[in-house]
Amino acid sequence: MKPNNYAMKEWHLEHVEKVIIRYVKGISPDASSFEKRNYKKYSTVTSCAKQIEYDIKHGVTMDEVLDVVRKIRHDKQYRDLQKIPESLQRLDELERQISAPKKVATTWY
Known about the structure:
The protein has a domain at about 10-25 and about 40-95. It is built from 6 helices and no strands. The chain is an all-alpha fold.
């Protein structure tokens, strides 16, 4: 039997889906000032990409993340998000952000 190096992989995969949906859905027009402040602080494309990178470090693969993106783009249960053009633009932006090659920090001595 092979040991499970990532005991909470399923949780992290669900977290990826929740983060993407939260970002793509955007904020409601009648949001409170607290919700607006939190959205501005935590729901940027960079913040979402960082949360997804954290989940990738804990066992979720990039293929699984892109499968979630495809699922949101094509699955019937997300029909309400697919009808909104701004949501699809945010999904495209997030997909470009997480698919882009990462810069490697180099130190010069």
